[in-house]
Amino acid sequence: MEASALNETSSTASEHDQEHVLNHGGRDSKPDFDREEEEEVRGILQVISSTGNFWHNWDKLKSMLSCQLKLVLSEYPEAKMTTDQQSASLGETYLELVTRLDEELHCFIEGPPFTLQRICEILLAARSIYPNLSKLALALEKNLLVTSTLIVCTKPYPQMMPNQEPEKASGEAQPESNSIQNGVEPMVRDRDEIMTEVEADMVDMTIDMDAFQEMVGPSEASSTADENS
């Protein structure tokens, strides 16, 4: 009886140790992301997700991906279920799931899988894409069960997006220049110029009326002659 209780205690302790290792990136990596490190990793993954290329040493990048993977998985409620609940929901325990996905990631020795861009997209927005852990696990597994790999990019590393403030300033200054073109000045024209245009229009109308009378006059005369006959 005592031996059984001892074995159960030992198993629980072993599970706890394994959970600590998996949730914190393994014994060989840093135990935790601080905020600055997490932002740095997310920045690197965002560059990869937007370009489809990578510039970092693969072993270093793989460690980042491994830590981010475990961090993302740990945010799902299934991670806090009992092992029986996890097995019923996932078909395996949470620890087995994390271990399996992490091992699949570490199978890539020479370089990252060619699905690296999609993996980064998933890890950056997992909760908004996949509502539960089982769907997330299937998506990650699908992108990790490939054989083709990428090679490191030799192009310059993308720089930070330029400050948008100058563009806003120029955009705000534009209405001021437009006010000169479309505002008061074009509306306030010389009175003589306007009157000249009006007089010209009146002359054109007079000429048109005279021409109309010349055309209509003979026609009416001809019609009157026909009636008298």
Describe this structure in words.
It is built from 11 helices and no strands. With 229 residues, it is mainly α. Helix 6 (116-124) runs antiparallel to helix 8. The chain is globular. It starts with a helix and ends with a helix. The model is unreliable at 1-31 and 161-189 (pLDDT under 50).
CA(first)-CA(last) distance? 141 Å
| Alpha carbon gyration radius | 39 Å
Q: Low-confidence parts, pLDDT < 50 over ≥5 residues?
A: 1-31, 161-189
Helix content: over 70%
Total count of strands: 0
Task: Give the helices and strands, then pairings.
Elements: H1 2-23, H2 35-51, H3 58-74, H4 83-90, H5 94-106, H6 116-124, H7 126-129, H8 133-144, H9 165-182, H10 184-187, H11 191-228
Helix pairs in contact: 2-6, 3-5, 5-8, 6-8
